[in-house]
Amino acid sequence: KSFVTGFGIQTAGTTCGGDTGSAVNTSENYDGTNFSVSGTMNTARANLASAGTQTAGIAYGGNNPPPGSSASETYDGSSWTTGGDLNTEHYNLAGLGTQTAALAAGDAPASNAVEEYNGSAWTTVTAMPENKEASMGSGAQTAGMVFGGQTPPYTGSTLLYDGTNWTATAPLSTGRESGATGSGTSNTAGLCAGGNAAPSITNATEEFTGGTETITSRTLTTS
């Protein structure tokens, strides 16, 4: 599958949605060793965002096909339940937070739109200071970060969010979109690996430590 999303931790994670030639609604749980097929989402879609843990997750937005979806669903570790819809259809958006305090940022085409979820409904909140598409998110709703993406072109810009306001901080060294990210619990530590970059995909891995982006010696392998 491509354009899939995921949430949880290394030994208890879930992947859902994606594209296998058309959008799918399947999900799988990971226990640190093996994947097992789990419940299906009510709405099939790719390019969606997600947040939370394996037993308390949320997936939202996406496309099937474009221009986008406003669907939002919660996950309890085995089954999906339809929740409150986003106010605007979004795909290629960044997600972060928890099942009851999630954040949706950006859109396709590039947008500065931001919405917060309180466990039942989405609310439009302070827009980002720049447009972003296919950016990455990490952290919590009141201490989050959104980085990379397209404006276009590819960008490395990093924005911190405190629950009300956005602040620019140190950018990624390699501008990129659609990278893999580690979803921490604050905006002082983050991880970004791989992604689409000019002139082609990159295997560069960068860590964020409270104001500094550092290229690490760990790079993704390719086959």
Summarize the entry for a quick read.
With 223 residues, the protein is mainly β. The chain has strands at 5-9, 12-16, 27-30, 35-37, 49-53, 56-60, 72-75, 80-82, 94-98, 101-105, 114-117, 122-124, 136-140, 143-147, 158-161, 166-169, 180-182, 189-193, 205-209, 213-215.
How are the SSEs ordered, and which strands pair?
Elements: E1 5-9, E2 12-16, E3 27-30, E4 35-37, E5 49-53, E6 56-60, E7 72-75, E8 80-82, E9 94-98, E10 101-105, E11 114-117, E12 122-124, E13 136-140, E14 143-147, E15 158-161, E16 166-169, E17 180-182, E18 189-193, E19 205-209, E20 213-215
Antiparallel strand pairs: 1-2, 2-3, 3-4, 5-6, 6-7, 7-8, 9-10, 10-11, 11-12, 13-14, 14-15, 15-16, 17-18, 18-19, 19-20
Describe this structure in words.
This protein is mainly β and 223 residues long. The protein has no helices and 20 strands. A four-stranded antiparallel sheet has the order 1-2-3-4, with no helix packed on it. The two termini are 17 Å apart. The mean pLDDT is 93.
Key words describing this protein structure:
mainly beta, 4-stranded antiparallel sheet
How large, in whole angstroms, is the Cα Rg? 16 Å
Strand content: 35-45%
Counting helices, strands and paired strands, the structural category is mainly beta
Please tally the β strands and state the result.
20
Largest sheet: 4 strands, antiparallel
Helix count equals 0
Give the H and E element order. Answer: EEEEEEEEEEEEEEEEEEEE
Strand line-up across the major sheet: 1-2-3-4
